[in-house]
Protein backbone atom coordinates (compact mmCIF):
# COMPACT_ATOMS: atom_id res chain seq x y z
CA UNK A 1 0.00 0.00 0.00
CA UNK A 2 1.55 3.36 -0.98
CA UNK A 3 1.88 6.12 1.59
CA UNK A 4 -1.47 7.91 1.84
CA UNK A 5 -1.40 11.17 -0.10
CA UNK A 6 -1.44 14.25 2.11
CA UNK A 7 -2.59 16.85 -0.40
CA UNK A 8 -5.16 16.93 -3.17
CA UNK A 9 -6.01 13.25 -2.74
CA UNK A 10 -9.04 13.15 -4.97
CA UNK A 11 -7.94 14.69 -8.24
CA UNK A 12 -8.05 11.71 -10.59
CA UNK A 13 -5.23 13.06 -12.72
CA UNK A 14 -2.92 13.09 -9.73
CA UNK A 15 -4.02 10.29 -7.45
CA UNK A 16 -4.64 6.88 -8.93
CA UNK A 17 -4.97 5.07 -5.58
CA UNK A 18 -8.54 6.35 -5.45
CA UNK A 19 -9.58 4.27 -8.44
CA UNK A 20 -11.41 2.11 -5.92
CA UNK A 21 -14.31 4.50 -6.45
CA UNK A 22 -14.94 3.21 -9.93
CA UNK A 23 -18.56 1.98 -9.89
CA UNK A 24 -17.86 -1.45 -11.34
CA UNK A 25 -14.21 -2.31 -10.96
CA UNK A 26 -12.47 -3.43 -7.79
CA UNK A 27 -8.99 -2.24 -7.03
CA UNK A 28 -6.42 -4.81 -6.02
CA UNK A 29 -6.89 -4.09 -2.30
CA UNK A 30 -10.45 -5.44 -2.39
CA UNK A 31 -12.82 -2.79 -3.70
CA UNK A 32 -14.08 0.17 -1.71
CA UNK A 33 -14.11 -1.62 1.66
CA UNK A 34 -10.61 -3.00 1.15
CA UNK A 35 -9.28 0.35 0.02
CA UNK A 36 -10.75 2.19 3.02
CA UNK A 37 -9.42 -0.45 5.38
CA UNK A 38 -5.95 -0.17 3.86
CA UNK A 39 -6.03 3.64 4.12
CA UNK A 40 -7.08 3.53 7.77
CA UNK A 41 -4.40 0.96 8.56
CA UNK A 42 -1.70 2.99 6.85
CA UNK A 43 -2.69 6.20 8.64
CA UNK A 44 -5.57 6.14 11.16
CA UNK A 45 -5.49 9.96 11.32
CA UNK A 46 -5.64 10.60 7.56
CA UNK A 47 -8.45 13.15 7.28
CA UNK A 48 -9.54 12.32 3.75
CA UNK A 49 -9.64 8.63 4.65
CA UNK A 50 -12.25 9.53 7.28
CA UNK A 51 -14.09 11.81 4.85
CA UNK A 52 -14.38 8.97 2.36
CA UNK A 53 -15.37 6.32 4.88
CA UNK A 54 -17.84 8.46 6.85
CA UNK A 55 -19.15 10.17 3.73
CA UNK A 56 -19.97 6.88 2.06
CA UNK A 57 -21.75 5.70 5.22
CA UNK A 58 -23.82 8.87 5.35
CA UNK A 59 -24.70 9.04 1.66
CA UNK A 60 -25.82 5.41 1.74
CA UNK A 61 -28.73 6.63 4.00
CA UNK A 62 -28.74 3.23 5.71
CA UNK A 63 -28.55 4.72 9.19
CA UNK A 64 -29.06 8.07 10.87
CA UNK A 65 -26.34 9.82 12.89
CA UNK A 66 -29.25 11.03 15.02
CA UNK A 67 -29.68 7.44 16.26
CA UNK A 68 -26.48 5.63 15.27
CA UNK A 69 -23.81 6.51 17.83
CA UNK A 70 -21.07 4.86 15.79
CA UNK A 71 -21.87 7.05 12.76
CA UNK A 72 -22.25 10.19 14.87
CA UNK A 73 -18.86 9.49 16.47
CA UNK A 74 -17.30 8.98 13.05
CA UNK A 75 -18.53 12.41 11.93
CA UNK A 76 -17.26 14.00 15.14
CA UNK A 77 -13.88 12.28 14.78
CA UNK A 78 -13.53 13.50 11.19
CA UNK A 79 -14.19 17.10 12.24
CA UNK A 80 -11.81 16.86 15.20
CA UNK A 81 -9.00 15.49 13.03
CA UNK A 82 -9.56 18.25 10.48
CA UNK A 83 -9.37 20.91 13.19
CA UNK A 84 -6.16 19.49 14.64
CA UNK A 85 -4.17 19.22 11.41
CA UNK A 86 -2.75 21.54 8.80
CA UNK A 87 -4.80 20.43 5.81
CA UNK A 88 -5.55 22.01 2.46
CA UNK A 89 -8.55 24.31 1.83
CA UNK A 90 -10.08 21.61 -0.38
CA UNK A 91 -9.82 19.02 2.38
CA UNK A 92 -11.42 21.45 4.83
CA UNK A 93 -14.33 21.90 2.42
CA UNK A 94 -14.76 18.13 2.12
CA UNK A 95 -15.00 17.84 5.90
CA UNK A 96 -17.49 20.71 6.02
CA UNK A 97 -19.71 19.08 3.38
CA UNK A 98 -19.76 15.76 5.21
CA UNK A 99 -20.67 17.51 8.47
CA UNK A 100 -23.49 19.43 6.77
CA UNK A 101 -24.84 16.26 5.19
CA UNK A 102 -24.78 14.53 8.59
CA UNK A 103 -27.14 17.24 9.88
CA UNK A 104 -29.49 16.68 6.95
CA UNK A 105 -28.56 20.03 5.42
CA UNK A 106 -28.39 18.64 1.89
CA UNK A 107 -28.59 21.96 -0.01
CA UNK A 108 -25.66 23.49 1.88
CA UNK A 109 -23.60 20.31 1.53
CA UNK A 110 -24.10 20.47 -2.24
CA UNK A 111 -23.04 24.12 -2.25
CA UNK A 112 -19.77 23.13 -0.60
CA UNK A 113 -19.12 20.26 -3.01
CA UNK A 114 -19.81 22.63 -5.91
CA UNK A 115 -17.34 25.08 -4.40
CA UNK A 116 -14.71 22.33 -4.49
CA UNK A 117 -15.53 21.55 -8.11
CA UNK A 118 -15.01 25.16 -9.18
CA UNK A 119 -11.29 24.79 -8.48
CA UNK A 120 -11.02 21.02 -8.79
CA UNK A 121 -13.41 19.86 -11.54
CA UNK A 122 -11.90 16.38 -11.63
CA UNK A 123 -12.59 15.72 -7.94
CA UNK A 124 -14.74 12.62 -8.40
CA UNK A 125 -15.66 12.34 -4.73
CA UNK A 126 -17.15 15.83 -4.62
CA UNK A 127 -18.93 15.23 -7.91
CA UNK A 128 -20.40 11.88 -6.90
CA UNK A 129 -21.50 12.99 -3.42
CA UNK A 130 -23.17 16.07 -4.92
CA UNK A 131 -24.81 13.93 -7.61
CA UNK A 132 -26.26 11.52 -5.06
CA UNK A 133 -27.44 14.32 -2.78
CA UNK A 134 -29.19 16.15 -5.61
CA UNK A 135 -30.87 12.81 -6.31
CA UNK A 136 -32.13 12.63 -2.72
CA UNK A 137 -33.64 16.09 -3.10
CA UNK A 138 -35.21 15.43 -6.50
CA UNK A 139 -33.04 18.28 -7.80
CA UNK A 140 -33.02 17.09 -11.39
CA UNK A 141 -31.58 20.16 -13.12
CA UNK A 142 -28.70 20.65 -10.65
CA UNK A 143 -27.94 16.91 -10.87
CA UNK A 144 -27.57 17.22 -14.64
CA UNK A 145 -25.78 20.57 -14.73
CA UNK A 146 -23.29 19.69 -11.99
CA UNK A 147 -21.79 17.08 -14.32
CA UNK A 148 -22.16 19.23 -17.45
CA UNK A 149 -20.07 21.98 -15.87
CA UNK A 150 -17.05 19.76 -15.24
CA UNK A 151 -17.14 17.58 -18.36
CA UNK A 152 -14.87 19.84 -20.48
CA UNK A 153 -12.14 19.47 -17.85
CA UNK A 154 -12.07 15.69 -18.16
CA UNK A 155 -10.06 13.96 -20.90
CA UNK A 156 -10.53 10.44 -22.28
CA UNK A 157 -7.21 9.21 -20.85
CA UNK A 158 -8.21 10.12 -17.30
CA UNK A 159 -9.28 7.33 -14.96
CA UNK A 160 -13.07 7.25 -14.44
CA UNK A 161 -13.72 9.38 -17.54
CA UNK A 162 -16.19 6.87 -18.93
CA UNK A 163 -18.20 6.84 -15.71
CA UNK A 164 -18.98 10.51 -16.11
CA UNK A 165 -20.93 9.51 -19.19
CA UNK A 166 -23.27 7.42 -17.06
CA UNK A 167 -23.68 10.21 -14.53
CA UNK A 168 -24.38 12.81 -17.18
CA UNK A 169 -26.73 10.46 -19.01
CA UNK A 170 -28.75 9.99 -15.84
CA UNK A 171 -29.08 13.75 -15.38
CA UNK A 172 -30.19 14.10 -18.99
CA UNK A 173 -32.89 11.44 -18.77
CA UNK A 174 -34.21 12.86 -15.50
CA UNK A 175 -34.71 16.16 -17.35
CA UNK A 176 -36.44 14.33 -20.25
CA UNK A 177 -33.62 14.51 -22.80
CA UNK A 178 -34.07 10.81 -23.54
CA UNK A 179 -32.38 10.58 -26.94
CA UNK A 180 -29.33 12.49 -25.76
CA UNK A 181 -29.24 10.44 -22.56
CA UNK A 182 -29.22 7.22 -24.58
CA UNK A 183 -26.43 8.49 -26.82
CA UNK A 184 -24.22 9.54 -23.88
CA UNK A 185 -24.82 6.27 -22.00
CA UNK A 186 -23.85 4.26 -25.07
CA UNK A 187 -20.66 6.32 -25.37
CA UNK A 188 -19.84 5.32 -21.81
CA UNK A 189 -20.53 1.66 -22.54
CA UNK A 190 -18.28 1.78 -25.60
CA UNK A 191 -15.46 2.82 -23.29
CA UNK A 192 -16.41 0.58 -20.35
CA UNK A 193 -18.85 -2.21 -21.31
CA UNK A 194 -19.45 -3.28 -17.70
CA UNK A 195 -20.35 0.19 -16.40
CA UNK A 196 -23.51 -0.71 -14.48
CA UNK A 197 -24.45 2.96 -14.08
CA UNK A 198 -24.58 3.58 -17.84
CA UNK A 199 -26.49 0.32 -18.31
CA UNK A 200 -28.89 1.49 -15.62
CA UNK A 201 -29.31 4.79 -17.46
CA UNK A 202 -30.27 2.98 -20.67
CA UNK A 203 -32.79 0.93 -18.67
CA UNK A 204 -34.35 4.19 -17.45
CA UNK A 205 -34.68 5.56 -20.96
CA UNK A 206 -36.53 2.47 -22.19
CA UNK A 207 -38.71 2.53 -19.06
CA UNK A 208 -39.69 6.18 -19.46
CA UNK A 209 -40.44 5.75 -23.17
CA UNK A 210 -42.28 2.46 -22.51
CA UNK A 211 -40.10 0.72 -25.09
CA UNK A 212 -40.61 -2.56 -23.31
CA UNK A 213 -39.19 -4.96 -25.89
CA UNK A 214 -36.03 -2.88 -26.29
CA UNK A 215 -35.65 -2.79 -22.52
CA UNK A 216 -36.08 -6.54 -22.10
CA UNK A 217 -33.66 -7.34 -24.92
CA UNK A 218 -31.08 -4.85 -23.67
CA UNK A 219 -31.10 -6.05 -20.05
CA UNK A 220 -30.90 -9.69 -21.07
CA UNK A 221 -28.09 -9.11 -23.54
CA UNK A 222 -26.04 -7.10 -21.03
CA UNK A 223 -26.75 -9.12 -17.88
CA UNK A 224 -23.23 -10.54 -17.75
CA UNK A 225 -21.87 -6.97 -17.79
CA UNK A 226 -23.85 -5.62 -14.84
CA UNK A 227 -24.70 -8.56 -12.60
CA UNK A 228 -21.32 -8.39 -10.86
CA UNK A 229 -21.80 -4.82 -9.68
CA UNK A 230 -22.53 -5.10 -5.96
CA UNK A 231 -24.07 -1.65 -5.75
CA UNK A 232 -26.30 -1.69 -8.82
CA UNK A 233 -27.00 -5.30 -9.74
CA UNK A 234 -30.18 -5.54 -7.68
CA UNK A 235 -31.41 -2.19 -9.01
CA UNK A 236 -30.82 -3.29 -12.58
CA UNK A 237 -32.76 -6.50 -11.91
CA UNK A 238 -35.53 -4.27 -10.56
CA UNK A 239 -35.57 -2.37 -13.84
CA UNK A 240 -35.72 -5.64 -15.73
CA UNK A 241 -38.72 -6.72 -13.65
CA UNK A 242 -40.56 -3.45 -14.39
CA UNK A 243 -40.67 -4.39 -18.05
CA UNK A 244 -42.30 -7.71 -17.13
CA UNK A 245 -44.87 -5.89 -14.98
CA UNK A 246 -45.65 -3.63 -17.95
CA UNK A 247 -46.35 -6.73 -20.03
CA UNK A 248 -48.48 -8.43 -17.33
CA UNK A 249 -45.84 -11.16 -17.01
CA UNK A 250 -46.17 -11.16 -13.25
CA UNK A 251 -44.63 -14.59 -12.66
CA UNK A 252 -41.47 -13.50 -14.45
CA UNK A 253 -41.37 -10.35 -12.31
CA UNK A 254 -41.91 -12.34 -9.12
CA UNK A 255 -39.15 -14.74 -10.11
CA UNK A 256 -36.75 -11.78 -10.36
CA UNK A 257 -38.03 -10.43 -7.06
CA UNK A 258 -37.53 -13.71 -5.22
CA UNK A 259 -34.22 -14.77 -6.74
CA UNK A 260 -32.54 -11.37 -7.03
CA UNK A 261 -34.18 -8.28 -5.54
CA UNK A 262 -35.36 -9.63 -2.18
CA UNK A 263 -32.43 -12.01 -1.82
CA UNK A 264 -29.91 -9.26 -2.48
CA UNK A 265 -31.65 -6.71 -0.25
CA UNK A 266 -31.60 -9.19 2.61
CA UNK A 267 -27.92 -9.95 2.07
CA UNK A 268 -26.66 -6.41 1.48
CA UNK A 269 -28.88 -4.29 3.70
CA UNK A 270 -28.22 -1.55 1.12
CA UNK A 271 -30.97 1.05 1.05
CA UNK A 272 -31.30 1.11 -2.74
CA UNK A 273 -31.85 -2.66 -2.73
CA UNK A 274 -34.40 -2.40 0.10
CA UNK A 275 -36.53 0.38 -1.39
CA UNK A 276 -36.57 -1.44 -4.74
CA UNK A 277 -38.02 -4.50 -3.03
CA UNK A 278 -40.68 -2.34 -1.34
CA UNK A 279 -41.58 -0.59 -4.58
CA UNK A 280 -41.80 -3.78 -6.58
CA UNK A 281 -44.26 -5.44 -4.21
CA UNK A 282 -46.41 -2.32 -4.16
CA UNK A 283 -46.53 -2.17 -7.96
CA UNK A 284 -47.44 -5.84 -8.17
CA UNK A 285 -50.16 -5.42 -5.56
CA UNK A 286 -51.67 -2.50 -7.48
CA UNK A 287 -51.73 -4.81 -10.49
CA UNK A 288 -53.82 -7.27 -8.48
CA UNK A 289 -51.06 -9.75 -7.65
CA UNK A 290 -51.20 -11.30 -4.18
CA UNK A 291 -47.89 -10.65 -2.39
CA UNK A 292 -49.10 -10.90 1.21
CA UNK A 293 -46.48 -13.38 2.46
CA UNK A 294 -43.71 -11.41 0.79
CA UNK A 295 -44.74 -8.27 2.66
CA UNK A 296 -44.24 -10.11 5.95
CA UNK A 297 -40.77 -11.28 4.92
CA UNK A 298 -39.75 -7.81 3.77
CA UNK A 299 -41.02 -6.25 7.00
CA UNK A 300 -38.17 -8.01 8.84
CA UNK A 301 -35.74 -5.92 6.79
CA UNK A 302 -37.55 -2.58 6.88
CA UNK A 303 -38.92 -2.50 10.42
CA UNK A 304 -35.53 -1.81 12.08
CA UNK A 305 -35.41 1.40 9.99
CA UNK A 306 -38.82 2.71 11.15
CA UNK A 307 -37.26 5.45 13.29
CA UNK A 308 -34.41 6.42 10.94
CA UNK A 309 -36.13 9.24 9.01
CA UNK A 310 -33.02 9.92 6.94
CA UNK A 311 -34.96 10.62 3.73
CA UNK A 312 -38.68 10.92 3.00
CA UNK A 313 -38.22 8.61 0.03
CA UNK A 314 -37.02 5.85 2.34
CA UNK A 315 -39.81 6.54 4.85
CA UNK A 316 -42.51 6.22 2.21
CA UNK A 317 -41.12 2.89 1.10
CA UNK A 318 -40.93 1.52 4.64
CA UNK A 319 -44.55 2.59 5.10
CA UNK A 320 -45.58 0.56 2.04
CA UNK A 321 -44.27 -2.54 3.75
CA UNK A 322 -45.84 -2.00 7.16
CA UNK A 323 -49.17 -1.26 5.46
CA UNK A 324 -48.85 -4.27 3.17
CA UNK A 325 -48.05 -6.50 6.15
CA UNK A 326 -50.93 -5.00 8.18
CA UNK A 327 -48.45 -3.92 10.82
CA UNK A 328 -50.50 -1.00 12.13
CA UNK A 329 -48.14 -0.24 14.99
CA UNK A 330 -45.11 0.24 12.75
CA UNK A 331 -47.12 2.38 10.32
CA UNK A 332 -48.37 4.64 13.09
CA UNK A 333 -44.95 4.87 14.71
CA UNK A 334 -43.33 5.91 11.44
CA UNK A 335 -45.92 8.64 10.84
CA UNK A 336 -45.81 9.95 14.40
CA UNK A 337 -42.00 9.98 14.41
CA UNK A 338 -41.98 12.03 11.23
CA UNK A 339 -44.59 14.41 12.62
CA UNK A 340 -42.48 14.94 15.73
CA UNK A 341 -39.31 15.69 13.76
CA UNK A 342 -41.21 18.09 11.48
CA UNK A 343 -42.10 20.27 14.49
CA UNK A 344 -38.47 21.29 15.02
CA UNK A 345 -36.61 20.35 11.85
CA UNK A 346 -33.52 22.45 12.52
CA UNK A 347 -31.21 22.38 9.50
CA UNK A 348 -32.59 19.06 8.25
CA UNK A 349 -33.95 19.64 4.75
CA UNK A 350 -35.93 16.39 4.72
CA UNK A 351 -37.64 17.15 8.04
CA UNK A 352 -38.57 20.63 6.78
CA UNK A 353 -40.16 19.01 3.76
CA UNK A 354 -41.99 16.44 5.86
CA UNK A 355 -44.69 18.82 7.01
CA UNK A 356 -45.81 19.94 3.55
CA UNK A 357 -45.04 16.88 1.43
CA UNK A 358 -43.85 13.80 3.31
CA UNK A 359 -46.52 13.58 6.00
CA UNK A 360 -49.48 14.18 3.64
CA UNK A 361 -48.10 11.51 1.31
CA UNK A 362 -47.82 9.06 4.22
CA UNK A 363 -51.38 9.89 5.27
CA UNK A 364 -52.62 9.39 1.70
CA UNK A 365 -51.05 5.93 1.58
CA UNK A 366 -52.69 5.05 4.90
CA UNK A 367 -56.08 6.26 3.68
CA UNK A 368 -55.70 4.28 0.47
CA UNK A 369 -54.79 1.17 2.46
CA UNK A 370 -57.97 1.55 4.50
CA UNK A 371 -60.11 1.91 1.37
CA UNK A 372 -60.65 5.65 1.87
CA UNK A 373 -59.87 6.47 -1.75
CA UNK A 374 -61.52 9.87 -1.80
CA UNK A 375 -59.37 11.04 1.13
CA UNK A 376 -56.27 9.60 -0.57
CA UNK A 377 -56.98 11.65 -3.71
CA UNK A 378 -57.66 14.77 -1.66
CA UNK A 379 -54.23 14.44 -0.04
CA UNK A 380 -52.18 13.31 -3.06
CA UNK A 381 -53.57 15.34 -5.93
CA UNK A 382 -52.45 18.77 -4.67
CA UNK A 383 -48.92 17.34 -4.29
CA UNK A 384 -48.55 15.77 -7.71
CA UNK A 385 -46.07 18.39 -8.94
CA UNK A 386 -44.24 18.49 -5.61
CA UNK A 387 -43.66 14.75 -5.31
CA UNK A 388 -40.38 15.23 -7.14
CA UNK A 389 -39.06 16.85 -3.94
CA UNK A 390 -39.01 13.50 -2.11
CA UNK A 391 -36.11 12.47 -4.34
CA UNK A 392 -35.51 9.36 -6.36
CA UNK A 393 -35.92 9.05 -10.11
CA UNK A 394 -38.96 9.61 -12.32
CA UNK A 395 -39.18 5.83 -12.71
CA UNK A 396 -39.15 5.27 -8.95
CA UNK A 397 -41.65 8.05 -8.20
CA UNK A 398 -44.01 6.74 -10.88
CA UNK A 399 -45.35 4.40 -8.22
CA UNK A 400 -47.02 7.41 -6.56
CA UNK A 401 -48.50 8.54 -9.88
CA UNK A 402 -49.99 5.09 -10.27
CA UNK A 403 -51.30 5.21 -6.70
CA UNK A 404 -53.08 8.51 -7.37
CA UNK A 405 -54.68 7.11 -10.53
CA UNK A 406 -55.85 3.97 -8.74
CA UNK A 407 -57.26 6.06 -5.88
CA UNK A 408 -59.10 8.37 -8.30
CA UNK A 409 -60.58 5.46 -10.26
CA UNK A 410 -61.73 3.71 -7.08
CA UNK A 411 -63.11 6.83 -5.42
CA UNK A 412 -66.89 7.23 -5.13
CA UNK A 413 -66.49 10.94 -5.87
CA UNK A 414 -67.57 11.59 -9.48
CA UNK A 415 -65.06 14.41 -9.88
CA UNK A 416 -62.29 12.07 -8.78
CA UNK A 417 -63.43 9.51 -11.34
CA UNK A 418 -63.20 12.16 -14.08
CA UNK A 419 -59.81 13.15 -12.72
CA UNK A 420 -58.67 9.54 -12.92
CA UNK A 421 -59.52 9.40 -16.61
CA UNK A 422 -57.75 12.70 -17.23
CA UNK A 423 -54.63 11.49 -15.43
CA UNK A 424 -54.55 8.35 -17.57
CA UNK A 425 -54.96 10.39 -20.77
CA UNK A 426 -52.13 12.62 -19.59
CA UNK A 427 -49.98 9.58 -18.87
CA UNK A 428 -50.72 8.13 -22.30
CA UNK A 429 -49.58 11.36 -23.96
CA UNK A 430 -46.18 11.07 -22.31
CA UNK A 431 -45.60 7.35 -22.91
CA UNK A 432 -48.09 6.31 -25.61
CA UNK A 433 -46.95 2.71 -25.93
CA UNK A 434 -47.36 1.68 -22.30
CA UNK A 435 -49.42 -1.49 -21.79
CA UNK A 436 -49.81 -0.56 -18.12
CA UNK A 437 -51.33 2.79 -19.07
CA UNK A 438 -53.75 1.05 -21.41
CA UNK A 439 -54.83 -1.26 -18.61
CA UNK A 440 -55.45 1.74 -16.36
CA UNK A 441 -57.52 3.34 -19.10
CA UNK A 442 -59.65 0.21 -19.43
CA UNK A 443 -60.21 0.22 -15.67
CA UNK A 444 -61.16 3.88 -15.67
CA UNK A 445 -63.68 3.38 -18.47
CA UNK A 446 -65.08 0.07 -17.24
CA UNK A 447 -65.73 1.09 -13.65
CA UNK A 448 -67.64 4.26 -14.27
CA UNK A 449 -69.43 4.12 -17.61
UniProtKB/TrEMBL annotation:
Keywords per UniProt: Repeat, TPR repeat
Cited InterPro entries: TPR-like_helical_dom_sf, TTC38
Keyword Repeat: yes
Entry keyword Repeat: yes
Record Gene3D superfamilies: Tetratricopeptide repeat domain
Coiled-coil regions listed: none
Family assignment from sequence similarity: Belongs to the TTC38 family.
Stated name of the protein: Tetratricopeptide repeat protein 38
Taxonomy of the source species: Eukaryota, Metazoa, Chordata, Craniata, Vertebrata
